[in-house]
Amino acid sequence: MNEPKLSRLQASSWIAVVETYQECNRRYAAMLREFDLTVPQFDVLNAIHSLGDNALPKRIAERMLVTRGNVSGVLNRLQEHRLIVTRQTLNDRRSFVCELTPAGAKRLDAAKTAAALFIEEQLSPFDEDEMQSIERKMRAMKTHLETLDPVAIALRAKTQEELVA
After folding, report:
1. What separation in angstroms does the CA of 33 have from each of 12, 38, 46, 107?
2. Whole-angstrom Cα Rg for the chain
3. Mean pLDDT per 10-residue interval, the chain, length 165 residues
4. 37, 28 contact by CB (below 8 A)
5. Distance CA 50, CA 69 (A)
6. At CB < 8 A and 24+ separation, what contacts does 140-148 make?
7. How far apart are CA 142 and CA 80, in angstroms?
């Protein structure tokens, strides 16, 4: 098989990014568990808070860049925990708006405070110039990733494999 040449630096850089992302997610999720929330629940509560009277499931899903189906289960769990309530909209009886309960607002405020502290402490080893550099590099990486076609790359690899076989 004719494998692409991956430098040791490319491999270790990629692994460092992935490991850092995974560790950040693990620790962030652990912090939110102290508030009896998952990351998606926290994100949905934030979306409901920021959308206000426009907190329809469709808008929440759009805000979170997921499907409405993904949001439905989270909304159900938040209702079961009495952190949100729903009410029908005035102009369309088939749709409903989500609202934070007083307990939901209190939990969100506490979790937001902890999230801000988490981010502050996570980035505390870096000075302003380093943080700006990290941000630029991560945004450049994301912009580049958006130009890649994973299916085309896989097909190219499959074609090379077939040529060798």
Report:
1. 31, 6, 16, 12
2. 21
3. 75 95 96 96 96 92 84 94 90 83 98 97 97 96 95 90 72
4. no
5. 20
6. 141/17
7. 37
